[in-house]
Amino acid sequence: MEHMKNKWRKVFFHVMVWVVLFSFPYLLSYDTEQAFKHVLIFSWVPLFLYMVVFYLNYLLLADRLFFPKKIAWFVCINIAVIIVLIFFREWFTDFFFPRPMDGGDRKGPPRTMIIYVQTLSFLVPIVWAVALRAMERLIKSEVEKKEVAHQQLKSDLQHLQYQLQPHFFFNSLNNIYALVDISPEDAKDTIHSLGKLMRYLLYETHTEKVSLAKEIDFMVKYIELGKLRLTEKTKVEYHFPEVDPTVQVPPLLFISLIENAFKHGVSAQEESTINFIMELKDDKVIFKGKNTDFPKSHTDQSGSGIGLRNLKDRLDLLYPNKHYFGNEIVSGQFRIIVEIPLNT
């Protein structure tokens, strides 16, 4: 549909340009029969011939000869066409303004000069035709590149999301496994909570955008699920705002930060804290995380950091040069902040 609209816009533009070019000579001439004859012979006929040359190159020769670099054929055909059209124009002019019977030329510049100027004038529509076609090809190429990039973006995001979901289930099953022996009842509650989270993942996250309110509800459930296996040595706090249901964000964007905190911010022997804050400010969603840092050993693959790598990749794909991702370790605490724009 959009392709047809662009095609009709192009046709309309071409028609309007030629209407203007054909109208001006008549509008600027005197309203006499002799004046009309001059407009016809010296303005409309040349314009018509220029139009023939323009569209011959614009619709045919530019794509088939010039851009494929068949320059010799391109030049020869245009020279032949120009010669034919110049002779046609001279014949048409002589028909309405015949030469004197004594064989002398009409008053004006030498005939060779007239032919030379006419030849140069035919070069103008050729140049314009090739230039316009080159510009259209460039625009089309850029549009196609953007479409390919967009499709690649969707494919990459889907791949990253498929990576994230198994990672999420793996961590959640670890939580349940830890609870089975400690508290079977809590394990049952955890399985029920996990079922709700799985339902959200399976049925509501396969779109480009989801409601931020639902994402917040998902994160709260996940945090509460994660807290079940923690001891009193770990303190978990979070503050998420109440948001309008129409506010949307990419699905599962912040869960990696929460996963990372539960992986690296918990110790069974030492005091630890985990803190999450989200706020909407200046048309941005700002997520801040802070947790005690307990680095994993090189042999502990649970701390491989796949979640944060996926998050960084997704942000680069979704918001190139429009987001902020920063993290640091300060006084034994891992701090991270993510900012993304709303409504983009």
Automatic annotation (TrEMBL):
It comes from Flagellimonas pelagia. Keywords: Kinase, Membrane, Transferase, Transmembrane, Transmembrane helix. This is Histidine kinase. It comes from the Bacteria. The keyword Transmembrane helix applies. One of its GO terms (cellular component) is membrane. Pfam families: His_kinase. Residues 156-233 form the Signal transduction histidine kinase internal region domain.
